[in-house]
Design a protein that fits this description.
With 202 residues, the chain is an alpha/beta fold. The chain has a single domain, classed as Peptidyl-tRNA hydrolase (Rossmann fold), CATH 3.40.50.1470. The chain is built from 8 helices and 7 strands, in the order E-H-E-E-E-H-E-E-H-E-H-H-H-H-H. It has a 7-stranded mixed β-sheet with strand order 2-3-4-1-5-7-6, sandwiched between helices. The termini are far apart.
Length: 202
């Protein structure tokens, strides 16, 4: 997301279905649900976007929200459909997703970059044809001795679940700052913040 390009669309990554709703891999969906609730936006299924779509607003700016229902590995199909329908550039997109390389309680905003091994972002890069879109990564931590797929598709530990609302609120604040003051300012303000540093999860 180049400096000066306003944020117009936010895509949260996850998997559809009740069995995945509370898993680590669905934290992108959780953030968008939090945003929609805060903004009073209503979700509806949209076949043209292959996802669940809502029209939100912040400080008089219209923002499109999307939770792809394609499963993670095909997330880019939904993202490009949203951008094409609303005629907004790739550079105005922010994608929200989980990150194994960040500990729980941390988040990172970026203006562009590679997939970093995340299959949902790989799909977005393929279908969008560009790395120039914003990302908000939320830490879910490494699995330790646990197999990676079981970790990302597992639910949060009780001590993490108790802090999850704080992390979602921090992500919402970062997004609203990016909308109101631009992504570089939001990066400066939020990339150094961490729930783990404020009050470590034990």
């Amino acid at each position: 997301m180049p400096e000066g390009v306003p944020l117009r669309a936010i895509v949260g990554l996850g998997n559809p279905g009740a069995q995945y709703a509370h898993t680590r891999h669905n934290i992108g969906f959780m953030v968008l649900d939090r945003l929609a609730q805060r903004w009073g936006a209503s979700w509806r299924e949209e076949k043209r976007f292959r996802g669940t779509h809502a029209e939100g607003g912040y400080q008089s700016r219209k923002i499109w929200l999307l939770k792809p229902q394609t499963y993670m590995n095909a997330s880019g199909e939904a993202a490009i459909a949203l951008l094409r329908w609303h005629k907004v550039p790739v550079a105005s997109l922010l994608v929200v997703y989980d990150d194994l390389d960040l500990p729980f309680g941390k988040l990172r905003l970026r203006a562009n970059g590679s997939a970093g091994g995340h299959n949902g972002i790989k799909s977005c890069l393929q279908h969008l044809g560009s790395e120039e879109f914003g990302r908000l990564r939320l830490g879910i931590g490494r699995a330790g001795d646990r197999e990676t797929v079981a970790h990302v598709l597992g639910t949060f530990r009780p001590e993490e679940a108790s802090r999850l609302p704080e992390l979602l609120d921090l992500a919402v604040a970062a997004i609203e700052t990016a909308i109101a003051r631009g992504l570089p300012q939001a990066m400066n303000e939020f990339n150094a913040r961490s729930l783990a540093l404020m009050n470590p999860v034990k």
